């Protein structure tokens, strides 16, 4: 069975970075027409003075595919709607959006500034909403469409120095679930991918200690192009019954991630007092407590 995206148009935000580039090229290889969106700034949001999306478009066109570049910012309502308009103006339709644009402003929570908080939330969470909201009326009218959002185990599990990024990425999961619930009646689906890959995002990881250098070495084994097959599948008709799921992709490994469900419960007919909570409820619930793990503690084995 060959995945065929012929006749479909997709938007890939952050399409000039390592992961986005791989996804954009793979989408075009599968037959889709692609809007490669990238504003061409550094990881921290500074202007790079170029249009890196053009390079991806040239690569796609050289292989016989269809693509256009777009440099509007996903972090504003107007910019995001212009990104969607680029698909409609150039290809006459929109069938999938891949919310991949990202930025990092790592800082320990107790030192994080308002700007460091806002800039990351604006791109990851607000940007995901704005792009998705821009595509939603078209998906609704044609009664088809796929939302593919990039989350992170920093939000799903946890990480040091990333309160802004973790909050945004876990927010993306909740947003995806809400989109799935609201759009299911129109045959529109919404899923998340938590990618593990060496990219400009992970390129900023510190390497001051032996533990940090080992972590970076593990990441360097994870090729960014390995994320693309799952994204292409989720954009295809073969994924029509896959909705509201969270996948992690790590080298040649695909994981289905858990979602919040009750683990244990306690009940008393008389109602609870603070003392009864301390004496009875917490001891009964404590075996189900999660340790204060980071992502690397939970997914600790070498990539395959």
Write a structural description:
With 304 residues, the chain is of the alpha/beta class. The radius of gyration is 20 Å and the shape is globular. It has an eight-stranded mixed β-sheet, sandwiched between helices. It has one domain: Rossmann fold. Strand 7 and strand 8 form a beta hairpin. It is 42% helix and 14% strand. It is built from ten helices and eight strands. This is SDR family NAD(P)-dependent oxidoreductase. It comes from Ramlibacter albus. Belongs to the short-chain dehydrogenases/reductases (SDR) family.
Rounded mean pLDDT is: 92
Task: Give the C-alpha Rg.
Answer: 20 Å
Order of helices and strands: EHEHEHEHEHHEHHEEHH
Globally, the shape reads globular
CATH topology name, in short, is: Rossmann fold
List the strand order in the largest sheet: 3-2-1-4-5-6-7-8
Task: Give the tags.
304 residues; alpha/beta; 42% helix; 14% strand; Peroxisomal_Beta-Oxidation; NAD(P)-bd_dom_sf; Sc_DH/Rdtase_CS; SDR family NAD(P)-dependent oxidoreductase
Overview in brief:
The chain contains ten helices and eight strands. With 304 residues, the chain is α/β, with parallel strands linked by helices. It holds the Pfam family adh_short.
Topology:
Elements: E1 9-13, H1 18-29, E2 33-37, H2 52-62, E3 66-70, H3 77-91, E4 96-99, H4 114-142, E5 145-150, H5 153-156, H6 163-183, E6 188-196, H7 210-220, H8 228-235, E7 246-250, E8 253-256, H9 274-285, H10 295-298
Parallel strand pairs: 1-2, 1-4, 2-3, 4-5, 5-6, 6-7
Antiparallel strand pairs: 7-8
Helix pairs in contact: 1-2, 1-8, 3-4, 4-6
């Amino acid at each position: 069975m060959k995945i065929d995206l012929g006749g479909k148009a997709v938007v890939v935000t952050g399409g000039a970075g390592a992961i986005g580039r791989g996804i954009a090229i793979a989408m075009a290889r599968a037959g889709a027409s692609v809007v490669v969106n990238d504003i061409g700034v550094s990881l921290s949001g500074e202007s790079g003075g170029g249009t890196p999306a053009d390079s991806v478009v040239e690569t796609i066109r050289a292989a016989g595919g269809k693509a256009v570049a777009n440099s509007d910012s996903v972090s504003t309502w107007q910019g995001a709607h212009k990104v969607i308009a680029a698909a409609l103006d150039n290809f006459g339709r929109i069938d999938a959006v891949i919310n991949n644009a990202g930025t990092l402003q790592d800082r320990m929570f107790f030192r994080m500034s308002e700007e460091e908080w806002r800039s990351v939330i604006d791109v990851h969470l607000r940007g995901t909403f704005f792009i998705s909201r821009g595509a939603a009326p078209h998906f609704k009218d044609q009664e088809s469409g796929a939302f593919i959002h990039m989350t992170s185990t920093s939000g799903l599990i946890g990480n040091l120095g990333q309160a802004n990024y973790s909050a945004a990425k876990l927010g993306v999961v909740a947003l995806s679930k809400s989109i799935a619930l609201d759009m299911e009646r129109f045959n529109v689906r919404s899923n998340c991918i938590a990618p593990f890959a060496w990219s400009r995002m992970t390129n900023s990881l510190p390497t001051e200690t032996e533990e940090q250098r080992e972590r970076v070495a593990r990441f360097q084994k994870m090729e960014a192009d390995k994320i693309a097959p799952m994204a292409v599948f989720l954009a295809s008709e073969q994924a029509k019954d896959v909705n509201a799921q969270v996948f992690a992709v790590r080298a040649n490994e695909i994981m289905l991630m858990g979602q919040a469900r009750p683990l244990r419960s306690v009940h008393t007919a008389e109602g609870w007092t603070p003392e009864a909570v301390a004496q009875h409820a917490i001891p009964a619930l404590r075996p189900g407590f999660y340790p204060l793990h980071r992502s690397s503690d939970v997914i600790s084995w070498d990539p395959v």
